[in-house]
Amino acid sequence: MKNPVPQAASLLLEKLMLLVHVHVRPFLAGSGGETTPPAPGDYDTSSFKRGDLLEVPRTLFIHFGIYLGENRVAHLMPDILPSFTDDLQQIQQVVTNKRLILGVIARTASVRVDTVEDFAYGGSILVNHMDRLFEDQVLGSEESARRAEKLMGATAYSLLWNNCEHFVTYCRYGAPVSFQTDKFCETVKMIIRDQRSVLASVLVGLASIVCLGLAPSTTLPTIFIPFFLWMAG
Question: Which N-terminal stretch is annotated as signal sequence (predicted)?
Answer without folding.
Answer: 1-24
